[in-house]
Specification:
- With 148 residues, this protein is an all-alpha fold.
- It is built from six helices and no strands.
- The chain has two domains: 89 residues, Helicase, Ruva Protein, domain 3 (Orthogonal Bundle); 48 residues.
- Helix content is 62%, strand content 0%.
- The chain starts with a helix and ends with a helix.
């Protein structure tokens, strides 16, 4: 039973997505390819890197990335080649510039707005709960009704 569990765990491991025929002969280039592919998202699996995904398109992306590195591209050139063809969606961490800057800043800005609205709401409710004091005439009338 232990062997079966171990075999299933090894088969399910994401590191096995890279096929032996994809691995480069040069260990330095292979290491670069692995590091780059960790930052590239599978267009099908969404939250898996192309290195972890078994999808066909991820295999194509891994192969194309390795081809570009063997051709002499720098890391940035290889990534840009893939971004030009598949869009910035394949980047786990898109650049913080242009239209993406709005997306990067929207979360913290909305958090600050929500905190301000929450603070204002709590203050308004606290102020509404504060009992008003009775005027002298109202206090005298209340004392008369209560018989004191």
């Amino acid at each position: 039973m232990r062997r079966l569990v171990l075999i299933l765990a090894l088969l399910a491991a994401p590191a096995w997505a890279v096929q032996p025929d994809e691995v480069l002969d040069d260990p330095a280039l292979e290491q670069r390819a692995r590091e780059i592919s960790e930052g590239l998202r599978c267009p099908v699996c969404r939250n898996e890197s192309i290195d972890e995904s078994n999808a066909g398109i991820s295999k194509d992306l891994r192969v194309k990335l390795r081809e570009r590195l063997v051709a002499g591209d720098s890391d940035e050139e290889a990534v840009q080649y893939l971004v030009d063809r598949y869009g910035e969606f394949i980047l786990f961490s898109p650049p913080k510039e242009g239209a993406n800057l709005v997306l990067w800043l929207a979360g913290p800005a909305l958090l600050l707005v929500a905190a301000g609205v929450g603070y204002g709401t709590v203050r308004a409710r606290a102020a509404a709960r504060t009992p008003e004091t009775l005027s002298d005439d109202e206090q005298a009338r209340l004392n008369e009704i209560m018989g004191s």
